[in-house]
Amino acid sequence: MTQIDTSVPHSARIWNYWLGGKDNYPVDEAAGDAYTAVFPGIVTIARGSRAFLGRTIRHLVQEAGVRQFLDVGTGLPTVDNTHEVAQRLAPESRVVYVDNDPLVLAHARALLTSTPEGATAYEPIDLYEPEAIVEAAGKTLDLTRPTALILSGILGHVADYEQARDLVRRLLAGLPAGSYLSLNEGSRGTDPAYEQAQDAYNETGAVPYFLRPVERIEAFFEGLELVEPGVVSVPLWHPEPGAPAEPIGQHGGLGRKP
User: Fold this and answer.
1) Which of 178, 166, 163 is nearest to 257 (CA)?
2) How far is it, in rounded angstroms, from Cα 251 to Cα 231?
3) Using CA atoms, how far apart are residues 100 and 74, in angstroms rounded to an integer?
4) Angle CA(34)–CA(35)–CA(36) in degrees, nearest 5?
5) Coil/strand/helix, residue 17
6) Which residues pair with 149 in a beta bridge?
7) Which end of the chain is more exposed for a tag (fewer CB within 10 A), N or C?
8) pLDDT per residue as tens digits for the range 143-194
9) Which residue spans within the chain are E strands per DSSP?
10) 212-213 and 94-98 strand pairing
């Protein structure tokens, strides 16, 4: 078992703290509180990203008939994980989670519950090994059938933009026509306070996360057919009736592989 260092803050645990989870330590709460002191809106961004993920999964199950999900860069389990949302609507849904963080691995059993009709699996593989990810996913998923690739707030950790785009292309290359990409990332151009806070965080020596201009997030969907309304600030993507729909510095979309 890999030793988990609880003396330094960890981005997945900080995110978990902002989402109201319990899998974090005082050092993470301190780092999370320090960030929210500078930019309180980060909690809205964390929860907005999570809510967007849930809405895209519901759309995929109910509107697109997708029953297979490949969630790469899973992060720590919180409420309404991918398999929970999908299997609530379609119990036969099959989900593969991929994350090579030892902390996430330690909590993976929370991701491995499943309906009897469906299946969930966890593969501890690095994001930078896309062909290995697809091969491992094929043990649980039928990769001749449409599969939804989920990349939720993970590509900002890839410093080189062209490398990030290449990883998306290579993951999608292993999935058949009719598959989908659900992607959302921190963005520039909407909230200067968020940009300042994140840039300052990146200079602390913590694992950096790079915000990107919206057009660069749009380019991750190159070659795909975007579901309306395209790539937008996440609260504006198929908002729930009555939900606040103020733009935030997090953009995402859903695209279909033709």
Assistant:
1) 178
2) 6
3) 9
4) 95
5) helix
6) 70, 181
7) N
8) 999 999 999 999 999 999 999 999 999 999 999 999 999 999 999 999 999 9
9) 68-72, 94-98, 119-123, 148-152, 180-188, 212-213, 225-226, 232-233, 250-256
10) unpaired
